[in-house]
Amino acid sequence: MAGSHPYFNLPDFTQPSPPSTPPNLPPSQRCRPSDATKGLLVALLGGGLPAGFVGPFSRMAYQASHLPSLELLICRCLFHLPIALLLKLRGDPLLGPSDVRGRACLHAILNVLSIGCAYSAVQVVPAGNAATVRKGSSTVCSALLALCLESQGLSGYDWCGLLGSTLGLIIIVGPGLGTLQEGTTGLYTAMGYVLAFLGGLALSLGLLVYRSLHFPSCLPTVAFLFGLVGLVGSVPGLFVLQTPVLPNDPLSWSCVGAVGILALVSFVCVSYAVTKAHPALVCAVLHSEVVVALMLQYYVLYETVAPSDIMGAGVVLGSIAIITAQNLSCEKEEKKEEE
Question: Which residues lie within the region annotated Disordered (predicted)?
Fold first, then answer.
């Protein structure tokens, strides 16, 4: 009687039980992550975290060899040019279809302006504060632009997370704005914050333009155009506005290579995420860049991190958790039958 007890008719626990297999659910009841969930996760892991290293590495390159911001932008654009090989192999036009070529070029110009302003700001403002102002302005502008131009609203939880994230950024950067020094140093610092704000505004406009592009190979096309437009605009500006510098130490070259690779990964992930989720939510999740930049600012650059920075970073992380939890949902797979 190997399967039951002889008196109480109970199962014999000394015998191994067969593995339990969950019943196969019909296709209509299976769940998969929603588009918004996938977009926000890609923005968090592939966009915000790598971008958090870009600002501190840029500052390290400037401190090591006084590398100008436009030269750093040129080096970053060089990493985008090999994407032309992918477009050629696929037989796609390098500049995109003729009917959307103007908007694609506008997207590239806005992104170049945004990155140029960010690299200029990080040379006179702490990396964490520059990233804070840039991401905060991009989030607010994205929410307003999407609401006004696309009539795309947000839920109550999304607005709560969005406002909380913006509040965290104000906590981080507010004390620094209230203690600006007088004279040339204070003027340069104020200009750094203005450039960071303009960089965020250009970023939000670029994301909005990208959402209007719908054609095959859209992502590699705009990535290549960013590199091309950046080179065309930065090379003349470098010789007119700044003085080229040839780094001669391994640290500067390592920082330049890391900036190029991480920035390319972040660019691709953010461009993908903004097609899946609301641009304001994507920008809010990208505030994780600020937390990473503050950590590197303290542990790597040995720059002071005030208690308000830590408090603001906590508020930002809590707001990101609210936004992510609100949008973590699954959609039932429904098998569409062709009629």
Answer: 11-31
Q: What are phi and psi of 311, to 5 degrees?
A: -65, -45
Contact 211, 274 (CB under 8 A): yes
Query: Stretch 266-294: mean pLDDT, rounded?
Result: 84
How long a stretch of residues is the chain?
A: 339
At residue 13, the pLDDT reads: 40
Alpha-carbon span 122 to 125, nearest angstrom: 5
Q: DSSP H helical segments within 43-96, as ranges?
A: 49-65, 69-78, 83-90
Angle between helices 101-121 and 218-241 (to 10 degrees): 50
pLDDT (0 to 100) of residue 7: 43
Question: 29 Cβ partners below 8 Å, 6+ apart?
Answer: 332
User: Is the per-residue pLDDT at 161 higher than 80?
Assistant: no
Q: Give Rg (Cα) of the chain.
A: 24
d(CA 167, CA 284): 11
- Give yes or no for a contact between 272 and 139, defined as CB atoms under 8 angstroms apart: no
The helix (run of H) or strand (run of E) holding residue 11 is none
Distance of CA 181 to the CA centre of its chain: 31
Check residues 273 and 6 and name the one with the higher pLDDT: 273
SS3 339: coil
Per the listing, tokens 């019943």 go with 23
The reply to whether the predicted model has a pTM over 0.90 is no
State whether residue 335 is helix, strand or coil: coil
State the Cα–Cα distance between residues 122 and 132, nearest whole angstrom. Answer: 11
In the predicted structure, residue 16 carries a pLDDT above the cut 60: no
DSSP type of residue 277: S
Pick from 140, 129, 123, 83: nearest CA to 271: 83
Q: CA of 335: how far to CAs of 24, 32, 75, in Å?
A: 15, 13, 48
Helix axes 69-78, 49-65, angle to 10 degrees: 130
